[in-house]
Write a structure and sequence with these properties.
5-stranded mixed β-sheet; about 20% strand
């Protein structure tokens, strides 16, 4: 028996974890949304003001999912609003192996994992009795429970002092963040229609740092993530006449050698560098075996950003593609000449003219050819993709179809972006609201030390990417257009609410419980911190943000 099991917050956490809200799922994600909506609706404030708690559908969602928005108004009417936010969905439980049936019952799972093969570090945490294990306990239902608890206490007291306090709970964060993308459009409308001023959005994601950095942390922003792709085309030939054609394989290889893990391209800010390009997929595009050399292939990468925007990244991609083509052609020529001297044929190597194009250029050529038939072509191509293809696979199918339509010959590289995109966002002092949020964060760090003896680290970016990316766009609005024009299937496969992101400018912070091993079979949360420290610090942070908004920076 643990000492928290009778607390409202602990029961709320275990209730949330029991929902199998694996993303994407119609039933699981809708059931937890309904539970949150009904739990909030039962509070005294919301019984008096039912219009202030809403269960809202995601826009154009094939699964018909919903997000929850609730606001407890201040006792004295005000536009000032602090937003607490989190996601309701979790990743699957395949990593839990034989314990998967128990992963959504944290108490049972914590007991059963004792017999599992776990590392000494995990077992050390387990034996303390201070850690609760299970899917979603850390990522991120303990943080969401803390946000709900704060809003429910405000709702029970008859209203929030000084400013409105709102809660946003969204699905699909572990997939494409469709929940937050729909919510961003709603927040922009809510801000305009009710003349609201969002003082801050506090995301409730936990600390996930490992090793020496495994201390509670608060973040002044969220790292960005973008997925650049390279579509490579060569010239077909039978493998028995290798030098009569040109293989796409060396081009992909050179791109990968230049990019994958290279610190040269790592983004950085304030003296800290973030992980560089990591190859997520590299593949031949043939659908059957043949004796033809590899003529078409593609690779895409995940890239974390702190300062870089699509225009700069695209420019670097073009340069990398051009260099990869030059290296590959040079190697082809050298190999062809050497082979010719070996077999005495005297056949000279072929002469190749390489091309590098943005997807925008390719799309424009296809549209010029098809005119009014361009949109039906795009829709039919996407619809005819293999059933098991995800958004990225369908996008590449469209690129290949456009290359064929335009009759483009290799050696060729098309560069562009694949979904999803998480723009980086921070509260690093560029506006009065950001300075207020940063000041409140510093005060909370001091409160953690004075009240609990806890060292709360203050870090510039939450490095796991988060829905904070969609609290507004920090950069010139045309940069969003660069991404859109260079993403195959924009508006069909994936889109961002660019108008809403241009209208929103919400200062952001992330403060959550202390967790470890997200997405693993040993996912866990530190109970004392989650039940005692985090709730107090969250309430303290909200009050300091409100205080600073009234006294000025």
């Amino acid at each position: 028996m643990n000492r928290y099991e009778d607390s409202v917050l602990y029961r709320l956490l275990t209730d949330l974890v029991k929902f199998r809200s694996v993303s994407p799922s119609r039933e699981g994600e809708n059931r937890i949304a309904r539970f949150i909506f009904e739990t909030l609706s039962a509070q005294p404030y919301f019984r008096r003001h039912p219009e202030d708690v809403r269960l809202l559908p995601l826009e154009n969602d094939p699964l018909g999912r919903h997000f929850v928005f609730a606001v407890v108004r201040a006792q004295e009417p005000t536009a000032d609003t602090v937003l607490l936010a989190g996601h309701m969905d979790v990743v699957g439980v395949q990593a839990c192996g034989s314990l998967a049936p128990f992963a959504f019952d944290p108490e049972e799972y914590t007991e059963r994992i004792r017999a599992a093969d776990i590392s000494p570090e995990v077992r050390k945490d387990l034996e303390t009795g201070e850690w609760l294990f299970g899917r979603g306990v850390a990522d991120m239902k303990s943080g969401l429970a803390g946000g709900m608890d704060l809003v429910m206490r405000a709702a029970g007291d008859g209203g929030s002092p000084g400013a409105n306090i709102a809660l946003l709970a969204v699905p699909d964060e572990e997939n494409n963040s469709s929940g937050m993308l729909s919510a961003a459009s709603f927040l922009a409308r809510f801000q305009k229609e009710e003349k609201v001023r969002f003082l801050a959005c506090i995301m409730l994601e936990p600390t996930f740092a490992a090793g020496e950095e495994a201390k509670p942390s608060m973040y002044l922003g969220s790292i960005g993530k973008i997925n650049p792709f390279f579509f490579c085309a060569g010239k077909e030939t039978h493998v028995g006449e290798y030098y009569e054609g040109f293989s796409a394989a060396p081009v992909l290889s050179h791109i990968n050698l230049m990019l994958d893990g290279s610190p040269e391209y790592a983004d950085s800010r304030f003296g800290r560098s973030y992980p560089p390009f990591g190859c997520m997929r590299q593949t031949d595009l043939r659908r059957e075996y043949s004796a033809t050399i590899m003529t078409r292939g593609f690779a895409f990468y995940s890239y974390l950003t702190a300062t870089r925007l699509p225009g700069q990244i695209l420019s670097e991609m073009r340069a990398i593609a051009a260099e990869a083509l030059d290296r590959s052609i040079s190697r082809y020529r050298k190999n062809a000449e050497a082979f010719s001297s070996l077999d005495g044929s005297g056949n000279p190597p072929k002469s190749w003219t390489p091309q590098v194009m943005d997807f925008e250029d390719l799309s424009r050529r296809a549209e010029d050819l098809l005119g009014n038939n361009f949109t039906p072509f795009v829709e039919e191509t996407l619809a005819s993709a293999p059933e098991d293809a995800d958004e990225r696979g369908r996008a590449i199918e469209l690129v290949e179809a456009m290359v064929e339509l335009c009759g483009l010959a290799g050696p060729l590289v098309i560069v562009g972006f694949l979904p999803p995109w998480y723009p980086h966002r921070s509260s690093l002092g560029d506006s009065e609201g950001e300075r207020a949020a940063a000041w409140a964060a510093g005060e909370t760090v001091r409160e953690a030390e004075i009240r609990f003896g806890e060292t709360l680290q203050l870090r510039p970016f939450f490095e796991g990417v988060s829905d904070l990316s969609y609290c507004g766009f920090q950069g010139p609005a045309p940069e969003m257009d660069v991404f859109a024009r260079n993403m195959p299937g924009w508006g069909k496969l994936y889109s961002l609410p660019t108008e809403a992101l241009a209208e929103l400018d919400i200062p952001v912070l992330n403060l959550g419980p202390l967790g470890r091993d997200a997405h693993k079979n040993t996912e866990r949360i530190h109970l004392r911190y989650a039940m005692e420290v985090f709730p107090h610090l969250l309430e303290f942070l909200v009050k300091r943000i409100i205080e600073k908004s009234r006294t000025g920076v």
